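hey so i finally got around to running the thing on that chain from the lab meeting. sorry it took forever, my laptop kept dying and i had to restart like 3 times. anyway pasting the input first so we r on the same page abt which one it is
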Amino acid sequence: MMLGAWVVVVSALVLILPGAFVGRRMNLPWPVALAAGPPITFALVSILTVLYSIVGFEWNAVSALVGLVFAVGAGWIYSALLVTRWGERLAPEPDTAGPRVGRTATVRVAAGLGLGGLVIAVTCIRPVATTAFAGLGNISQVWDSLWHASSLRWIHETGIGSAMRMGELMNYDTQGFNYYPNTWHALGALLFPLTGADPVELYNTYSPAVLAVTVPLGVASLAYWFARHRYDVDSAALIAGTAGALSALFPSLPYVEVQLTSVPNAVGVSLAPVAAVLVMSVVSDRSRVLPAALAVAGVTATHPSALIVVGVIVGLWWLCEGLWRPVAGRLRDLATLAVTAVATLVLIAPVVLGTIRVADTNELPFFDFREDTIGVLDGLVKGAFNGTIPLELEHFPVWPLIAVTLLGLIALAWLRCWAGLVAWFVFALVTANAMVSLGPLSYPLGVIGGYFYNSPHRLTFVVAIISAAAAGVALGALALGVAGLVRRRVASDDIGDPEPGRATSAKARWLVAATYVVLLALIAGAAVVRYPPNAQIASKERGGKYVGPDDLAAYEWLAAQPDAQDVLVLNNLDQGTGWLYPVTGVTPMFPFYRANEFSERQRDVFWGVSEIGADPAIDQIVRDMNVHYVIDSPPSYWEFQRGVPDPARGHQGDPFLALRQHGAPGLTEVFRRGDAVIYRVNDLVYPPPAP
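ok and heres what got predicted. didnt touch it at all, straight out
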């Protein structure tokens, strides 16, 4: 647990501070700069890793620090340009300065964010550290987790952090092009020398650590925007802090995403409200155009689905509010937003180009999660109130969360925050449509959902962010109302006081503070009640179904062989034996469950593994690729990858089945534990040198 706590602290600092320094240098007030810190940090990582890849620099802690210095310098130039005559014409000082976010507001928000982050970190990390096999070195059994852990190690070892070069990791032989939004991985790779964690330990702790920052922050930012429709800064800050703390109670924020390892998506989407609120502020202060564009670029580079969330929130705000209450005039406000959008497009050019290049090979948008067993009404209810797979199996409905969500929606209507209310409704419909067809609405809703692979749990995450923010508004407003009633009672008792105004004001502040402390204590108590189910959700896929203690023993044995570090290990990618790489650093032929472009020789040796030593062509491939070991550890991940191959009937089957049953002349078994078996390529393939 000490390692987990240290990773959480370091992750929070590395995530927040670089972007905050750059944002502050670009004239953002400190509270705004701190809130915008994480998305701006991810933007810097995205830009620097691509540039470093082009010029041949390695991505590591030193080069990242150098890049940060240049970014701060660029921010200084930007702020200097703003005070020139040209800059003052394009981005004049706002006619009326907005209310200042002071110490009281900052402390209130920080208290709520701290509580929410603490609850999330403990709920996600503690059960893995204390109950899972291998502790923090435990292997998640979910498909995506192998890619994330391998990426962390690969970026650290190679210094290649560019999202445009991830094909070099996905396929050892061809190194064919593959784009993957890897700012989250590139930032995490910097933590190895700072934390001393190994790749698996870092993956298991860094994943929830980042979400412990981004989820409460995103929910709080949204709640603050909601609350500012009626409340002053300090009251809105209390509401935002309440929402940030409350976010830790929702099972899909982020426990489902940790279980299903959709962490980059969850990080990007959870920061989308921060970027959206910053974009909305540019019409009042045009000097924020570039920081806002950086924030949007950062969340987009973390996962493109976040751009959709930003677009929906900002678009609905413009239609429901900005269009009717312009700041500098409709055309000028729209032009400011358009400039922000253009700047964002320039900054996310690698994301756009990479996404286009992999569009033909990306199978995820074609996944179908619809269920024939549920009706439209059932789908709507589950989509709106966190009832999608996997929550509907054991954790739905959670009536207290449904109740506070409904109160929150009522509060949004009372605040006249129509954009927030419509955004919740839109994403609830998109989520429901991912489970059951909604007729004529199916196509437009499916287009939005397609950016989330029409995966109900990913869409539920978006709905839950808005639900938690709305619920925070309801509870925070209720707490302020209670404090107001008590304050009026105290004021009536202060009649005759020689200084009634000062005494009443001081008492009022203490009353609000005390009410807020009580509210946070109640949320903390609810977190204790919710700990068992939420911890179970977060740590559910940890039991060794595909990769267990026997596999770890095999990996460690292989890594201890004197010749294993400089050779290639043939593995069955369908079995998840690519975990050999993040666990030990030994190189498997297939480091992930899929390879973007199989080479002909990969295909031949993979399907001809049982012919090693019997087929000269296969033997030559083994020698050419420097394969010295073969590892086998059934079962394969998907059912169609198991059993006897039967291409005539469309059944892929298991190419290692024949090896398992009959062996291969050129392979000698050297290790066996459970189903994990390691073979060494013998003298039939590698004849000993002549004396």
